[in-house]
Write a sequence for this structure.
């Protein structure tokens, strides 16, 4: 039983990171009906930028803020260069285009930051906390990760429910025509959504880098977990992305603990398949799935 | 207030509107009637910027509106209540209303908001509820309320009677006509249900296959038996 609890605690930090990446995917899906597979590529790229900033300045905080800004800029660039030229209403074309962006970003990162995997310095102590006579499998850094995730979720919730911009974003996502007739500048709002998702993904990247390494392909597995969490959560639900994201972190930790970490992606894909068979519209979705 | 001059709209090779001209004065309701496919909705969608005109245009108080984007046209004082589900079901009543005036300054927005609640008390009662919990008539009131939140000079109403009980249609249209005369609003009402529309309209315009075939007072059109048979089918 103690082992079980230890595995659960050990999964919280990675769960929070998966939740953030899933949130970025959901933010784009809700407003454009496109799954942005380039999201992890963007996060990888901005994490390399954060690493450069950290090396220059020595400050993790400046690196985090730099990644946040770079993520927003990169999100806007991806939208302008790739998604806008792809014909409107051609969502499958847009989704394939995001794969193209992913590959291009990975190739570019390999050229700009050569030398394979690099270590991202530990900003906080990442060894287990000693408390009540034993070492727990959760670190100060895990608490920082969970705290930053909670802050972002709180901020986004306030943005969507309390501000005019948030209302515009929701209206533009649910019914762009009525939004435009109401005076919402929908294309600007969508661009802001890409910037926001880019920032959220960038934070996930900077948070995950110290516990793994960073290379052009190092976040691919994060995409698998985040995509799984987003789909099971219903793709258009922010709460769904967060809760299933954290849940995914716990499951992965349990699977890795009791068997082998190589089995985690298999389990994730099994859960995804099971979900698509039993409840294809996702657990938290507002919409009924179309029957095929 | 709203002047439409030789407006033509094409969908590919099909001419949906051909050289339509009309005047929509303030303080009264002007009804455009005609059968399915007469071009009524195309007219509304063009005036609100959702469809680009082929030639000709429309002005409001002398300012050209045609060819602009919907989000700019609403800022020039033209507000459309589109046909069918024109509220956002996932948002609350309050949010649907707020959406209609987000671009305005806070003071103007708040005063219109209070006016809309006076006009439709049921919306004030249900402000916290999601729009999809409302009845058909309440949802139409919400749609009109959302359009009024931009404080328009011209209100475009596309088939407000669709799917509503006759009694509720009459109530809503009478309210709209009172609103027109009390707040000096120019209302352009598009209806397939000619009898109801002509009852509140000062002027009626009969549209057939994209062309204006008759303009007259509501009573004149309602009493013209030949016209009714030929274009309105009753």
């Amino acid at each position: 039983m103690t082992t079980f609890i230890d595995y659960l605690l050990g999964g919280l930090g990675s769960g929070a990171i998966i939740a953030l990446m899933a949130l970025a995917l959901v933010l784009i899906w809700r407003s454009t009906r496109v799954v942005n597979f380039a999201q992890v590529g963007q996060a990888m790229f901005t994490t390399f930028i954060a690493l450069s900033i950290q090396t220059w300045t020595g400050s993790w905080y400046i690196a985090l803020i730099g990644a946040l800004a770079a993520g927003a800029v990169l999100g806007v660039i991806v939208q302008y260069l790739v998604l806008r030229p792809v014909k409107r209403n051609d969502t499958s074309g847009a989704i394939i285009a995001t794969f193209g962006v992913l590959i291009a970003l990975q190739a570019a990162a390999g050229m700009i930051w050569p030398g394979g995997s690099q270590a991202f310095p530990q900003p906080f102590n990442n060894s287990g906390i000693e408390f009540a006579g034993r070492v727990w499998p959760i670190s100060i850094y895990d608490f920082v990760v969970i705290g930053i995730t909670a802050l972002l979720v709180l901020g986004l919730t306030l943005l969507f429910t309390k501000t005019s911009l948030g209302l515009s974003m929701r209206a533009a996502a649910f019914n762009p025509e009525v939004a435009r007739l109401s005076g919402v500048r929908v294309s600007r709002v969508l661009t802001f959504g890409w910037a926001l998702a880019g920032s959220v993904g960038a934070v996930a990247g900077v948070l995950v880098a110290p516990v793994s390494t960073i290379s052009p392909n190092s976040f691919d597995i994060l995409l698998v977990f985040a995509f799984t969490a987003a789909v099971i959560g219903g793709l258009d639900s922010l709460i769904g992305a967060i809760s299933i994201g954290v849940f995914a972190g716990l499951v992965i930790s349990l699977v890795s603990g009791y068997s082998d970490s190589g089995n985690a992606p298999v389990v994730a894909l099994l859960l995804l398949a099971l979900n698509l068979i039993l409840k294809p519209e996702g657990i938290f979705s507002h919409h009924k799935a179309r029957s095929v | 207030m709203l002047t439409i001059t030789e407006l033509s709209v094409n969908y590919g090779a099909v001419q949906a509107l051909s050289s339509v001209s009309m005047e929509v004065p303030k303080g009264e309701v002007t009804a455009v009637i005609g059968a399915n496919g007469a071009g009524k909705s195309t007219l509304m969608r063009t005036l609100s910027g959702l469809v680009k005109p082929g030639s000709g245009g429309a002005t409001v108080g002398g300012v050209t509106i045609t060819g602009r984007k919907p989000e700019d046209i609403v800022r020039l004082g033209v507000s459309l209540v589109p046909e069918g589900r024109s509220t956002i079901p996932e948002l609350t009543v309050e949010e649907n209303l707020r959406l209609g005036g987000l671009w305005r300054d806070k003071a103007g927005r708040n005063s219109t908001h209070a006016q809309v609640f006076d006009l439709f008390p049921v919306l004030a009662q249900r402000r916290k509820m999601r729009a999809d919990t409302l009845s058909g008539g309440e949802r139409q009131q919400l749609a009109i309320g959302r359009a009024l939140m931009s404080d328009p000079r011209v209100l475009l109403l596309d088939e407000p009677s669709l799917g509503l009980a006759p009694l509720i249609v009459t109530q809503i249209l009478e309210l709209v006509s009172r609103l027109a005369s009390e707040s000096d609003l120019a209302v352009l009402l598009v209806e397939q249900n000619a009898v109801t529309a002509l009852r509140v309209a000062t002027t009626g315009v009969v549209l057939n296959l994209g062309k204006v075939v008759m303009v007259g007072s509501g009573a004149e059109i309602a009493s013209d038996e030949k016209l009714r048979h030929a274009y309105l089918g009753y």
Remarks:
- Chain A has a mean pLDDT of 88.
- The longest strand of chain A covers residues 134-139.
- Chain A has eleven helices and two strands.
